[in-house]
Amino acid sequence: MNAGVLRGFNLQRVERVLRAIGDPHKRVPAVHIAGTKGKGSTATFIYRVLLAAGHAAGLYTQPHLVSPRERFQARGACITKPEMARILGDLLPVFEEHRESDLGRLTFYEVYTVMVFAYFAQAELDIAVLEVGLGGRLDATNVVDPLVSVITTVDFDHVEVLGSTLAEIAGEKAGIIKPARPVVMGYQRTAAEKVIRGVARSVGAPLVDARADVGTARAGPVSGREACHLAGRSVRLEDVRLRLIGSHQVENAAIALAVVECLRDRGWAIGDAEIRRGLEQARIHGRFQAIDLPDGRACVLDAAHTPGSAAVLARALGEAYNGEHITLIVGMSSDKDAEGFAQALASSASHVVLTRAGSTPRASAPEDLAVVFRRHFRSVSVERSTPVAVAKAPGETLCVTGSVYVVGDALRAVAPDAYAEFRREVGL
């Protein structure tokens, strides 16, 4: 493990604060999800299936597109402003008491995590779906003893924190595996799979291999939906129509189905028809989301931010817009692999506009990104903000990508109809 790099992370800090408020994380059963790619989509699939089955479910996911309230979802809607203000007000004295301690200062993410545990407990939920923020072993969510642990595809990201090899990164992700609790493993490369299997074996956790245990057949996009067939151990679903587009989303749905079957094994009432309905209702704005801009141009919003997710985006763009000239609008955080990202998308676009998200201090300067992208694209320009970048971008088909924050900027600033729909769907 990467103890030297991860020395700033400390579960004891979070556990101490949770203990002071009555351990709310122990009052709501949970599904706990780590991974590099697909964990947000997988979490959303599971959450929607649980809601469709009539369970009072919660979802904790990150990052957010436009509002931190998106991270706190219960019974199908985000936490309200008054509820969030009340919970923060109730917890503020405890946060202040533990602000500076021998274990170090609470991070913003740890504060959010404590708040969501308190919110879920007060909301008297049946079950919560928790997405890991970073890594797994020392992530603030790893204080739970879950019903099921899940590890989606492991890839290279946050290498300066989690390790420079796939095995090291997988070791950090596998830190969420708990003794005697089933762990569902997503689609993995050999090095990651070996580590995950080894950790599961060492702690006595039953391992479910989603790739082996859930059969998939992809029919491709049909009327704006991803058509597929899924066959688990006890569930066979023909002609499922997913709102989340791409072959990778079929894999994420298969992982979610494997998790749901684990829950059914433990007595959770979830019918086959409810599984289908939940999978088909699941949606995440900013994940290969096709919208029409007010000026009539087509635009795809996709929060890809790693070379692996950029390769997935490149394939999806090729399928959906084969032969069309696409303009990329890209903003990235400074800790991301811009070189690998640009290389993965090099054959997908005729022009790139580099910009920056206005909502994060970690954003790379577009001029710095341009140096990298000019090594892979012939036509590159720079604009200081996402709205200006979209307005000035040449071409009839655009794709905004590179960061959830730049996608959020675009959704809010240049796509009023899509933004209004987003607000309605998530209850903002």
How do the helices and strands line up, and which of them pair or pack?
Layout (H helix, E strand, L loop, with lengths): L10 H10 L9 E5 L4 H14 L4 E4 L11 E3 L2 E2 L2 H17 L10 H15 L4 E5 L16 E4 L7 H4 L3 H8 L9 E3 L4 H14 L3 E3 H4 L1 E8 L2 E7 L4 E7 L4 H19 L6 H10 L7 E4 L5 E4 L5 H14 L5 E5 L7 H7 L6 E4 L11 H8 L6 E3 L3 H7 L4 E5 L2 H11 L1 H11 L2
Parallel strand pairs: 1-5, 1-6, 2-5, 6-7, 7-8, 13-17, 14-15, 14-17, 15-16
Antiparallel strand pairs: 2-3, 3-4, 9-10, 10-11, 12-13
Helix pairs in contact: 2-9, 2-10, 3-4, 6-7, 11-12, 14-15
Describe the structure.
The protein is 40% helix and 18% strand. The chain is an alpha/beta fold and 428 residues long. The protein has 2 domains: 11-281, UDP-N-acetylmuramoyl-L-alanine:D-glutamate ligase (3-Layer(aba) Sandwich); 289-426, Alpha-Beta Complex (Protein-Tyrosine Phosphatase, Chain A), CATH 3.90.190.20. The strands form 3 sheets. It has an 8-stranded mixed β-sheet, with helices on both faces. It has a 6-stranded mixed β-sheet with strand order 12-13-17-14-15-16. A 3-stranded antiparallel β-sheet has the order 9-10-11. Helix 14 packs across helix 15. Mean pLDDT is 92; it is low at 1-6.
